[in-house]
Amino acid sequence: MSEAKTKQQGAVQTTGHAWDGDIQEFNNPLPRWWLWGFYASVVFAVLYWVIYPAWPVGKGYTTGLFNNITYTVNGEERSRHWNTRSLLVKDMQTGDEALKTKEYMQKVAAADYRQILADPDMMAFVRSVTKGLFGDNCAACHGSGGAGVMGLFPNLADDDWLWGGSVEDIQNTITLGHTGYMPGFARTFSDEQLDDVAHFVLSLSGHEVPADKVARGKQLFTGEGGGCYYCHTAAGTGMKSQGSANLTDNIWTIADVQGQTELTGKVDAVKTVIRNGVNRVMPTWQGRLDENQIKLLSVYVHELGGGQ
Amino acid sequence: MAEGTSPELYHARIPIYPRSVKGRFRTLKWGILALAYGVYFLIPWLRWERVVGIPQAVAFDIEARRFYLFDLVVHAQDIFWLAGLLVIAALLLFFVTGIAGRVFCGYFCFQTLWTDVYILIERLVQGERVARIRLDKQPWNGEKIAKKLLTHLLWLLVGFWTGFTFTLYWGNAPDLFLAFFTGAAPFPAYATTLFLMFTTYVMAGLAREQVCTYMCPYARFQGAMFDRDTLIVAYDEKRGEGDAGRHKIARGFKSKSDREVDGAGDCIDCGYCVQVCPTGIDIRNGMQYQCISCALCIDACDTIMDSLNWPRGLIKYTSDKAQHGEKTRFFTAKNIGYGVTLIATVVALIVSVVGHVPVDFNVSQVRQPLFVQMSDGRIQNSYEIKINNKTDRAVPFALEIDGLPSAELDKRQKQHLHEQPAQSLSLLARVRVNPQSLPASPAEFRFRVRPQDDTELPILEQSAFFHSAGNH
C-alpha cells in the first residue's frame, strides 16, 4: 500500500508501524538535496576553520590564511591576520569616511580663518570634528561645552576674552599657553582699603554702591597706592597683553559676583580676589597637538562664544 | 517494523512534467505574466527628466541616499514610507487570502511566474509532457544532449537577464549596461547579477515546486488566514465520484445517462488535471498543502467537460461551506476588518506622500552650557540648526524667530541662506535677550525658515529659551 503511494506526489509514506490496528506512523522523508546541503555546510565549516582564525591552540589560536590587514601605528606599518578590530582600525585610517575627512581636513588646512568662518560647510565640518578634540584636550578644565568653572577656569562660551577673542589670539593662547597672574594685596591694603577698592571695582560695572567708598577706592586703584591701573587700566577695561580682566562688564571669572544676590556678598567676593591675588595657568599645547588641530580648535573655541 | 522495509530518510525529487493546457485561467495567467515581465524588464529603461539625480523613471540611488519613483524623490528620512508599503502589501495579502485563498501564490508570486517561463522554454525545446518523459528516459545521445543543453542555456540566459535587470534599478541603466559589458561596472553589479542569475536558474529551473513546499514560509502560515468561506480550488467529489466512483469512458460508460445506471460519477479519470499540475498533486484527493491555487486543473477539467458537452465545474473555485451546501459569505468581520485597515493604511500613506514637506528643518538646543551671560549682561542661548533642501533647485532661505520679543538672532552667517539643490546645511544660531526683558524660563518660541521664492510655505520649529537653571 505505502509502496505504491510514494510514487505519487503528495502521498504520504508510513513507517509500517500500526498500533491498535489503525494508528499509523507517517514518514515524510527529507528531500535528498537537503542532505547534500548538509554535507556542503560541513565542507564549508572545515574551509572556514582553515581560512579564518578559529581554533584555540595552547595560549594562541590558528590565525587563518589571510595575513593582509595593514594599518599604521605611530607611523609604523603593521600587518595582522584577519580580525575585525584590525579591520576597524584600517577602516578608520583608509576607509571611505576617513578619506573624506582627510580631504576636508586638507581643505580647512589650506583656508585662512576668514574663509573658514564664512563657509557654512567648513564650519559644519569643524564643529563635528573638533567636538572630540575639544572633549579630549580642553573639556577637563573648561567643561564639554566650554562653560568653565567659576573661580578656576574661564568660560569660553561667552563673549569676554582675557587674552583676546580673535581667532589668531585664541590660536596664540592654545599654542603657547598662558599664566594669569595678579599679585595678592593682603600686605599692601588694610582691610578698610580693600573694602574701598572692592566697592570701586563693583561701581565700574554699574553696581549701586556708596559714593564715598568709591571715591576712596578710585584713588587707590588709579594712584600709586594700589597701582591697579598698571594692568587693568585707569578705566578698568583690562589689557589683552596682560590678560587682565575687564572690570567694567558683567563677566566675572574669579570673583563670583553673579552668584551673590546681596551687595555685601559681592564685595566680599571681590575683596577675596584682591587680597589673595590670582595665579592661573593654561598649559601650552604646542607639541601635543599639531598645527591643524590647533587651527581647528581655535575656530571651534571662537565659534563657542561670541568671538571677536 | 516490517522486515526489509526500513523507512526512507531522504528521497530524490519525483520529476514533474507539467502538460500544457489552454483555458480561461491560463489566459489570465499569461496576461499577468506579460504585465509583470513588461513592468519589471522595461521600467529601468524608461527615461525621466530631472534637474538633479539619475535621469531614470525608477532608480534607487544608494550612494546619494535617494530613491527616484517618477516625480517622487524618496529621501533617507522618508524611508518609513517603505514600512507603510510593506504594511499595505501584508494587509493586501491577508485580505485577499482570506477571501480567495492563495491568489498570490498562483498568479503573482515570482516563483510561479518564473517557473511558468522556464516550463515554457522546456516545452518549446523538448516538446510536450510525453516527449519530455521519453527524452528523460532515453539514453544520452546527440539529441538528448542538444535539447538539454539548449534548455539549460536558455534558462541561464533568462536568469542572467533577470539578475541584470534587477541591477539596472540601482544605477543609470544605459551607463550601467555599457559599463557592465565592458568590464567597468562596480563589483556589486556583477555579484548581484550573477547571484540572481544563479538563484533564478536554481529556483525556477531545478527546484520549482520544492520552493513552495519546503522553503516558502508564506505557504506554511496561510492556513491561519483560511476559513470555511475562503475560496479554494476543489474537486466536486459528489458529482465526480457518484455512488460507484469515477470511471473511464468505456463501453457502457459513455453518456451521462449510461453512467447513471451504474452510479458512476462525472469524472472520467482522464488524469488531465494531474498532468497539468505544476506541483504534481491530484486535486481529487482534496485540499493539499502543495496546492498553490494556480487553477490550471480547472482549465484542464473544463476542457474535458466541454469536449464531452457536460457542464463545466467538476473542478472549480468553491469554498468549504459551498461544498457542504451552505452559503459562502464574503462580508465576514475578518474580511471587512482587513479591508478597512488596508484602506486606512493606503490613505495614510498617500496623505503622507502628498503632504511631505520638501525642506527638512531641525533645531536642537546646545545644552552645555544651556545659557551664557554676555559681557553686556544679555543672556545667550545657542541652537544647532539643520536645513535639508530636498527639492531639485536652489532655494534662498531666511531664518527668523517668532514669539520672543526683544530677542536678537545672530546667525553668524549671511542674512539669507542659499541652499543648493538636494543638499543640507548646518549652522549655529544664537539668540540673545536683554536682562530687563527676560521672559519666563524656559520661554517657548519658534524658529521659522522662510523660503524666499514664495513657492513654499514657511516651516516652523518649536524651541525654548532658558536663562536660569533649576525647575520651573
Strand residue percentage of chain B = 15-25%
Parts with pLDDT < 50 across at least 5 consecutive residues of chain A: 1-6
* Poorly predicted residue ranges of chain B: none
* CATH topology call of the domain at 359-465 in chain B: Immunoglobulin-like
In helices, the fraction of residues of chain A equals 40-55%
Strand and helix order of chain A: HEEEHEEEEHHHHHHEHHHHEH
Question: Mind telling me which CATH architecture of the domain at 181-281 in chain A this is?
Answer: Orthogonal Bundle
CA(first)-CA(last) distance of chain A: 98 Å
For the largest beta-sheet of chain B, the strand count, sense and barrel status come to:
5 strands, antiparallel
In CATH, the architecture of the domain at 359-465 in chain B is: Sandwich
Greatest chain-chain contact: A-B, 44 and 44 residues
Give the spatial strand order of the biggest sheet of chain A: 1-2
Query: Structural class of the secondary structure composition of chain B?
Result: alpha+beta
Q: If you average the pLDDT of chain A, what whole number results?
A: 89
Q: Looking at this structure, what is the CATH superfamily of the domain at 359-465 in chain B?
A: Immunoglobulins
Count of distinct strands of chain B: 15
Number of helices of chain A: 13
The oligomeric status of these chains comes to heterodimer
What is the class of the domain at 359-465 in chain B in the CATH system?
A: Mainly Beta
How helical, in percent, are the residues of chain B? 40-55%
Structure in words:
The complex is a heterodimer of chains A (308) and B (472). With 308 residues, chain A is an alpha+beta fold. Chain A is built from 13 helices and 9 strands. Chain A has a two-stranded antiparallel sheet with strand order 1-2. Chain A has a two-stranded antiparallel sheet with strand order 4-5. The longest helix of chain A is centred in the first third of the chain and has 20 residues, at 32-51. Mean pLDDT of chain A is 89; it is low at 1-6. Among the domains of chain B are: 227-323, no CATH class; 359-465, Immunoglobulin-like (Sandwich). Chain B is built from 16 helices and 15 strands. Chain B has helices spanning 24-42, 80-100, 103-108, 110-126, 129-137, 142-168, 173-181, 187-207, 209-215, 217-221, 237-241, 256-262, 272-276, 296-308, 320-323, 333-354; strands at residues 10-11, 58-61, 66-69, 72-75, 231-235, 315-319, 359-365, 372-373, 379-389, 395-402, 407-410, 416-419, 424-433, 443-451, 459-465. In chain B, strands 7, 8, 9, 11 and 13 form a 5-stranded antiparallel beta sheet that branches. In chain B, strands 12-10-14-15 form a 4-stranded antiparallel beta sheet, with no helix packed on it. In chain B, strands 2-3-4 form a 3-stranded antiparallel beta sheet, with no helix packed on it. In chain B, α2 (80-100) runs antiparallel to α16 (333-354). The longest helix of chain B is centred in the N-terminal third of the chain and has 27 residues, at 142-168. The termini of chain B are far apart. The interface between A and B is large, with 44 and 44 residues.
